[in-house]
Amino acid sequence: MHWGNKIVTLKEFSQFNTFSADREKLLCIGAATTECKYKTELKLSGSNKMLKLYYPHNVAARVLEYWLPTFGINDSCSAFEIISERIRLNDYYGVVSAGNASSVVREITKTCHKNTYDEASLLATAEKIKTYGAFDLEKLGYLIRVCFSVDLLSEKQAWNFLEELWEAAVLHFDNWDDYIVSFVNGQVGLGTIWYSDTLVSYVQLKKDPASLLNTYQLKN
Q: How many CB atoms lie within 10 A of CB 154?
């Protein structure tokens, strides 16, 4: 709903996006990417806690016509099949090159300085985490939200997929810093800038005591 230049979500979206802890924790996967991408699209914040994103009709139409087809997603069947396949084929053991690892360190340092965040923990993590498996996990966490929001996945399918992503993250990473460094490894390795603000959102979420990433840990 539009009020001048501000977009306000309908009450039923806020009511729908209230979940028990066992559900809400699953939204940690994709939280940082959802925060930056959804906020960029609609000038909203806090969207990392949503499963159903609010899209005005014209925005939903653009998502369906232009963005989702870049993944090969054109309908419910292709959404389910492609997400299933990407989860199944994700590479958790491939590592970045030495040159890309240096670029990751520079990206972390730059982002932390710009956002007044102590980079020590992330830089220490970058010394040990060289894999890039979290890149697709994080990206899929956002993609699942989008597909559910435009009615290409059922709610049950969305939660089931997010649970698979959560279980994979728990299996392969000890904490959120390990996870996000692995994500940045993948982003830098692929040379893509489309997800470059995910690290910015991660740092901002870590600074917020009430964020999902501070409420739920990968391993207790």
A: 12
Is 115 a residue whose pLDDT tops 70?
yes
Name the pLDDT band for 219 (thresholds 50, 70, 90).
Answer: confident
Phi first, then psi: give them for residue 166, nearest 5 degrees. Answer: -60, -45
Distance (Å, rounded) from C-alpha 157 to C-alpha 149? Answer: 12
Per domain, the residue ranges of the chain are 2-215
Look-up: residue for tokens 């279980």? Answer: 167
Q: Which of 89, 83, 192, 193 is nearest to 146 (CA)?
A: 83
Which residues, 6+ apart, have CB-to-CB distance to 108 below 8 Å?
A: 119, 122, 123, 126, 181, 184, 199
141 close to 162: Cβ distance less than 8 angstroms: yes
Instruction: Give the global pTM.
Output: 0.94
